[in-house]
Design goal:
32% of the residues lie in helices and 18% in strands. It is an alpha+beta fold. The chain starts with 11 loop residues before the first helix and ends in a 7-residue tail after the last helix.
Length: 171
């Protein structure tokens, strides 16, 4: 049967898929401690992550092999290896990786993953009011990330919880 535009009774499958995506995005934002207006970065992550789950996954059905990248959660604390230009400015024996929160995977047209990850360096959140709509999220596209073992850590959640419990004043 065909779906008819503007007749919700005929769009049940699509409506349910959209509702699931919205619920997953809302959960990802809450788990990460990210504000609701970050839906534009959490939503694409959730859409991508849903393509990597299941057996066989949608990714596997399309490309003939399971997804071979790392699978961190949205907003999870990770380490990334900066580009050579960024590393030139650091001290000789300082750590080669930097802390960030995971945002998404980078895809070429046709949803083919090329091995890049999208991250947000943690240092931009220090002392910043990232709940403010004017906060500009700075993203980096990197080739290498390290996902810590064990339970995921969500650094923004601690700040969000402290604000909610009036331990940190809202700006």
């Amino acid at each position: 049967s065909r779906s008819v535009p503007y007749r919700h009774s005929t769009n049940g499958v699509v409506d349910r898929q959209i509702r699931t995506w919205e619920e997953d995005t809302r959960t990802a934002l809450k788990s990460a401690g990210a504000p609701p207006h970050w839906f534009h970065v959490a939503g694409p992550h959730q859409a991508s992550a849903s393509n990597f789950s299941g057996s066989p996954s949608p990714h596997e059905l399309r490309f003939g092999a399971p997804f071979d990248g790392k699978l961190p959660c949205f907003g999870q604390k990770i380490q990334y290896l900066p580009h050579k230009e960024e590393r030139k400015s650091q001290e000789l024996f300082s750590p080669s990786t930097r802390q960030a929160i995971f945002i998404n995977w980078e895809f070429n047209p046709g949803c083919r993953w090329v091995g890049n990850y999208v991250v947000a360096p943690i240092k931009q959140f220090v002392g910043a009011d990232f709940h403010n709509h004017k906060f500009k999220l700075k993203l980096r596209v990197v080739r290498e990330i390290i996902v810590p073992r064990g339970d995921p850590e969500f650094p923004l959640r601690a700040v969000t919880n402290a604000i909610a419990n009036n331990l940190i004043p809202k700006k």
